[in-house]
Amino acid sequence: MKALVLSGGRGTRLRPITHTSAKQLVPVANKPILFYAIEAIRDAGITDIGIVVGDTQAEIRRACGNGDDWGCKITYLPQEAPLGLAHAVKISEEFMAGEPFVMYLGDNLVKDGIAGLVDEYRAGGYNAQILLAHVPRPKDFGVAELDAATGRVIRLEEKPAEPKTDLALVGVYMFDRNIFEAVNAIKPSARGELEITDAIQYLIDHDYNVHSHVIDGWWKDTGRLEDMLEANRIVLDGLLRKIDGEVDAASSIHGKVRIGKGSRVVNSVIRGPAIIGDNCVIENAYVGPFTSIYYNCVVRGSEIEHSIVLEVVR
Length: 314
Ligand code: TTP
Known about the structure:
By secondary structure, the chain is α/β, with parallel strands linked by helices. 24% of the residues lie in helices and 32% in strands.
């Protein structure tokens, strides 16, 4: 089995951050979101990974390299423009070479990983497996309608004005080679994209076996700023305390706090959950809960909480 990670796209909803850099590389608890996806795939026993890239490909290639850091082999699949999730699948046909695969949206986080889900897909012999989650605002997502008697998916709609259920499509999918028949048959939607919901609907309408699984652990599509901060809060909450940097006698550290090597905390208060990367200076400052401060940052004479602080890119 192979994997396809989608890291192209425009990221319009995360502007201004994404004017200059890839949204998949924004750090959550000081680790790029994309790395969580690669780790989840590796932990499911899949090591042959294709990453779909667009305008920000130089950055993504620099960050992930050839995959050696994870014991994986990464192949980059340039997409000429963000023409839709199903278009990203379309350009991966040669790379997949007939093998089934997991498709993972590079800006999604799934708390419990995907190993169990991949096993379920392999054992079930399905043509496709989709993950669903109950969400408060289904309008923002692809939404699934299930048959009341059998529980099978009967209809999928992309961002419907009047959602029939609150079951959103999570950004992790499993497909066999038949998905290529679907992505080659469908036409672009009103917004001009080849929609993955239309491709899966094609499979359903042509009697392929599409299995759905409602997940109960948390999952986040970090496409919007507030979702990114919420993902950061949830991941930070699971941190263990570890202080590698120096903390002077005038400072105090409370709760789950990680401070990286070479960092200095001077006359400051840090209240966890919080993470501070390597080589930072926190001076005459208050760093409150749910804050991630990336590497090489200086926070001086300031109060900050519920935030992600990025390093300055020169
Ligand atoms: P989306 O969040 O659906 O799209 P986007 O990245 O263009 O963002 P926005 O809506 O803010 O403009 O994309 C989900 C993931 O898939 C994300 O990691 C980007 C990636 N993607 C591609 O690789 N190719 C594509 O054609 C599209 C649409 C998205």
